[in-house]
Fold this protein.
Amino acid sequence: MGTICVVGTGYVGLTTGVCFADLGNTVVCVEIDLQKLDTLRSGRTPIYEPGLQELLERNLRAGRISFTDDYTLALAQAELIFITVGTPMGPDGAADLSQVEAAANQIGRHLAHDAVIIDKSTVPVGTGDLVGAILREQLRPGVSVQVVSNPEFLREGSALADFFKPDRIVLGSADRAAAEQVAELHAPLGAPVIITDLRTAEMIKYASNAFLATRISFINEIAQICERLGADVREVARGMGADKRIGPHFLDAGVGYGGSCFPKGVLALHHMAATAGCHPQLLQAVMDINVDARRRFVTKLREILGSFEGTLIGVLGLSFKPNTDDMREAPSVEIIKELQAGGARVKAYDPVAMEAAGEIMPSVTYCATAYDVAKEVDALLVVTEWNEFKMLDLDRVQRLMRRPVLLDGRNLYDPADMAAKGFTYRGVGRGLAAV
Ligand code: NAD
């Protein structure tokens, strides 16, 4: 049996590699970041993802997964080659494809036999054709490849569950047999498989992300209206979500979406649309509302404190969502920047993201517990909805604070309870209790 090669061991590549190994495949991962490579070879995962460490150890022990920076070695037996490198946001909003192009060039130069190249990175529509063109330019005579787009829908924090129980597998290719070969690899998962053309598969990923981001911006707009009109957005979302046509997911009002996927995905789709001569008004509104959600949160605090000058503010939760240490486009970063720009000193706690946060926000004081953050602060902000914040002893928190001001950017607490405890409490979109 041929092996699987995974190019790039970030959140997506490492999960993909480890999980395919766990299904019994032999997987070789190729990574150019030597520090990451060292960590992986010593049996440790460089990222925090629940369950991944155990699965990595198990498959290393079984000899089903290995890591290298040597493309010749990685490709030697590979029948299926996944590209899972990063596609960060470029300066003009378009996705930066330099890692994908470099990976395609490397594969083209080192591949010595026919193979299927599967693009899992989120790439603009048309990139599969570009990857095919790069490969064909580099490949030695007689070697041929087929390109398949296989967009990734995993969520950080539940990546393993998402891998093993996907809602669907999307495969796009000009070559049906290649798509079916990739479908076969996924057969043990028992998930529905949608086979389509390359460009449509690439578009499915962007449209899905943009739709989810739209739901979040939609509910944040409703939250703003709820605050003014005295309704409670959590109840509104519950009432809406009970309708099968709507469903309950992605209707949590808060400080907006973040992470490595939604912000760049919506922006890249907007860019693709505008470049193609379309007028993507809804996508623009989705992005504007998201920026606004963070600003309004900070504005609410300014209204209570008057000014941030000389204040000490505590922040609970830094990662862009719970169960990950990923700080990319995390709302906490912009919120903290605004607080500091106004003259506040900031203390913070996050169960796993403080190391990553420290690299981008060295001027924040990081604390060992949520209670340490609460000590002597003029206000406490909940920015990420980690489970442990739901279980805080709020009476203790209040006793520790200098002023009992709590801004709940994730609607974890009940406004009436918080008022009864003596907090000046603001949620998001919580009607009269929130204004
Ligand atoms: P990442 O930045 O965490 O990882 C990319 C990895 O690729 C890095 O380790 C980097 O060193 C390595 N790399 C770069 N160029 C290389 C090369 N030429 N050869 C070998 N390795 C190379 O990225 P990620 O979060 O895993 O995302 C990967 C892709 O998947 C992106 O397109 C992203 O949009 C998409 N995606 C991400 C998620 C997510 O939740 N993170 C979900 C779905 C889709």
